[in-house]
């Protein structure tokens, strides 16, 4: 850009040294689309070149320095509620300020002038990238390179976003999940899953046992629920998103019947579980077993039937929809 369209300006391009061989990974953008970005891991070196191309040959470009930054940033959205006599709305606003948990700077050129297009080498050695790249409902964690030509009136800058994946070792202890739930004098079931920690392309294997059946069940399904938690203290906000609905039974079961479960996770868009990332947000996954009777009542009871880490209050148990919930850890 140039002031009022006069004077010299330039285009900036950031090129990684291993751009031709480095693997790319799909990542969701804020508008829901999927783009491919260069993939990095914690501790890897980030190096490349910054190309500054003058738009008007023969004219000089005065500047106050040229630099490149490597930034790890968390951006949140502010949740606000507006209540009137007739409606209750939830409004979201961008905070405008972002928290940077990684900020590295390399000076490429001192203040002076460019008389021709020029290329600058850069290298950030063994860069710490402690968290996984993430785009959610109310928070986004991203890593990017930003090259800047500082000027008196208006800077010229260019960003190159990358994606970071974290590596997890498979746990030595991965116990099965087993729970008995029921509605008094109506229904008593036992469900069991083969383990509590899964990788993103794993298979959930389990069984449902019907020990007492005195209501007419119409069908049964398993829901995978993603819960994004942002904020702290009294300002904590939970955003639930149903990742998948998988019907495992259609029709009325009888006492003593056993229903097998085999759910493949590879076909669903999921991330690793995240706990208290930089004290800003958490991401957890829940496996809900849903049984609906012939009346299709919308009543549910997760407080009585759910496992740990489910802070939402629920109504008292009544005959109708039964939703026991189990917390899963994705690696």
UniProtKB/TrEMBL annotation:
Keywords: Protein transport, Transport. Residues 300-331 are annotated as: Disordered. Belongs to the VPS26 family. The lineage of its organism: Eukaryota, Metazoa, Chordata, Craniata, Vertebrata. GO terms for cellular component: retromer complex. GO terms for biological process: intracellular protein transport. The keyword Chaperone does not apply. The keyword Transport applies. Residues 306-319 have a biased composition (Basic and acidic residues). This is Uncharacterized protein.
